[in-house]
């Protein structure tokens, strides 16, 4: 599972690099982002090639971003954890696909401040399809009506924020990519997850920008990626949502 994970992590890196640039992800050989020379197969082995080459291109000797190594490692570790915690193959395949999609969205938005529609719509498709798949033993909503309501509320939760901010400030404070991402989250977890995910994402976002605000590297008008924090918030809900809700109810 680790080997499968790092191989698919390598493809995830391709998607992270090419999708924001409107390039084909399926066809076309991998190439160095710096010198544009094609990368040979023996220099494209996940994790291993990066280590053997000391993180540099064999042709131009310029540094290759550590992000490629990190993404492959995260994907390998994620696949192992999913395999160890779920006993049926339907759950393993579905969660692995969702995990790769989350990683792709996370790193694209973190770097480019966009969430491609192709990824948002794929997330929505996966979220709806899980209602018709058997034996997915995970913290999702499996009633199609609740799922659709969750998707609508997820989208509207961001759209309303954008609308109000536009009226007050006369500019767009967020993008519709975040709204589509929240629609996918709502389709996955239902409407009850929306307040939790938004609250968690806001706290994580504040922690992310606080050092830069203190050092005055950015100001309150600076653009920041919100998608990665939505992703992290939904992961926290997936892992601990039920426990936290029960804790709040007891209080």
Description of the molecule:
With 251 residues, this protein is mostly helical. It folds into two domains: 1-85, no CATH class; 115-251, no CATH class. Helix content is 66%, strand content 0%. The protein contains nine helices and no strands. The protein has helices at residues 2-18, 48-52, 66-85, 89-112, 117-129, 144-169, 176-189, 193-214, 227-250. α8 packs across α9. The longest helix has 26 residues, at 144-169. The protein starts with a helix and ends with a helix.
Summarize this entry quickly.
The protein is mostly helical and 251 residues long.
Descriptive tags:
single chain; 251 residues; mainly alpha; globular
Set out the fold topology:
Blueprint: H1 2-18, H2 48-52, H3 66-85, H4 89-112, H5 117-129, H6 144-169, H7 176-189, H8 193-214, H9 227-250
């Amino acid at each position: 599972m680790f080997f499968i994970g790092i191989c698919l992590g390598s493809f995830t890196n391709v998607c992270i690099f090419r999708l924001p640039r409107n390039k084909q992800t399926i066809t076309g050989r991998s190439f160095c982002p710096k010198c544009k020379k094609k990368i040979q197969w023996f220099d494209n082995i996940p994790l291993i090639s990066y280590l053997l080459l000391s993180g540099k291109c064999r042709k131009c000797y310029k540094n290759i971003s550590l992000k490629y190594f990190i993404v492959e490692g995260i994907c390998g570790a994620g696949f192992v954890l999913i395999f160890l915690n779920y006993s049926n193959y339907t759950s393993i395949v579905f969660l692995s696909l969702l995990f790769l999609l989350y990683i792709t969205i996370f790193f694209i938005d973190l770097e480019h401040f966009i969430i491609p529609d192709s990824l948002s719509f794929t997330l929505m498709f996966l979220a709806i399809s899980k209602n018709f798949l058997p034996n997915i033993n995970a913290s999702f909503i499996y009633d199609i009506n609740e799922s659709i309501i969750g998707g609508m509320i997820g989208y509207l939760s961001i759209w309303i924020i954008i609308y109000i901010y536009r009226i007050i400030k006369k500019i767009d404070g967020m993008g519709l990519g975040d709204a589509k991402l929240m629609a996918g989250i709502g389709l996955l977890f239902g409407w009850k997850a929306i307040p939790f995910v938004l609250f968690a994402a806001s706290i994580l976002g504040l922690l992310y920008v606080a050092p830069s605000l203190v050092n005055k590297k950015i100001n309150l008008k600076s653009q920041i990626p919100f998608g990665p924090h939505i992703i992290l918030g939904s992961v926290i809900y997936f892992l601990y949502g039920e426990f936290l809700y029960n804790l709040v109810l007891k209080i």
